Amino acid sequence: MPKPPPVTRIQDYMESRAEVGLRSDEAYVRRLVRRGVWEYDVGYMPVTPAENRYLRRRDRLAQRTGRVDRYLARYRGLSGGVSIEDAFPHPAYLLVRVTRARARHARRLARLAPHVRTVLVAHSLRELRAVQARVDASPPPAADGVFVDGTGVDIDTGRVEIDVITARTDAAAYVRARYGPLVAAHVIAATLTSPRCARMLGYRSTDAGLELVYETDGVSTFDHAEVTESEDRVEVAVVEQVPNGAIAGVGATGRRTVALGRPLASRGVVDANTGTRLRVFSP
Fold first, then answer.
1. Domain 125-189 has CATH 3.30.300
2. pLDDT per residue over 78-91, tens digit each?
3. Percent of the chain whose pLDDT exceeds 90
4. What is the largest CA-CA distance in the chain?
5. Phi and psi, residue 82, nearest 5°
6. Predicted model pTM
7. Which residues contact 270 (CB under 8 A, 6 or more apart)?
8. What span, in angstroms and rounded, lies between the C-alpha atoms of 53 and 41?
9. Which residues face 212 on adjacent strands?
10. Are 205 and 165 contacting, i.e. CB atoms less than 8 angstroms apart?
């Protein structure tokens, strides 16, 4: 049961560029890496000089959001949320969502920060957060088979988005009926846990066979061990049931003893998941 491949350096650059609306296809990003120009602040991604200027102006715009937030806070139930929207090669802009009197507030906001746009929305951020708090305070009963993994306010859709784990096919309708039309469900898994191979740390030979030592997180549970013997090697893997959704575990070491068909002798012990030879584990 292979783990997903790790994110590569190039993939990380691609994701970072996509987050701020810059071209992010692999061939282009590799070309930028060869040019060797890096983002001006902390250098976390390759850029062109024009993109560097764009990012500087974008950061200056972000520093002006405090003025906008303070203005909106003066009017109860006015703000539907503020975000920075990317528009390269045009300047990034602040998108301010208001629930009323859009034209009047747009004129005032334009004096507080450059590149401000306003849009009229039906529900305020205050209203959406109140709905979110109600969901957090009253999760579905376990008997209904719908488990909430996380909640959040989406100012783009004007709804409260909740991640749920359930095998039910009517999850969206169930959530609407329970919490109202401002809540949308996203099913992230059908079961509370899923099997996953643990990272092997090593082994110890014992009278009973092999003690497998592996990395765990303190919240996943052992499911089973897999052992395949051949003339020159023993391939091993440990499968855990890992919680779907957010994991708030801490690093820990797991141990599990497995039996062998015959003594290990000179045979090597190999991680079946990665193909690498394991070393004798020293506590």
1. yes
2. 999 999 999 999 99
3. 89
4. 83
5. -125, 140
6. 0.80
7. 233, 234, 235, 236, 276, 277, 278
8. 11
9. 203, 256
10. no
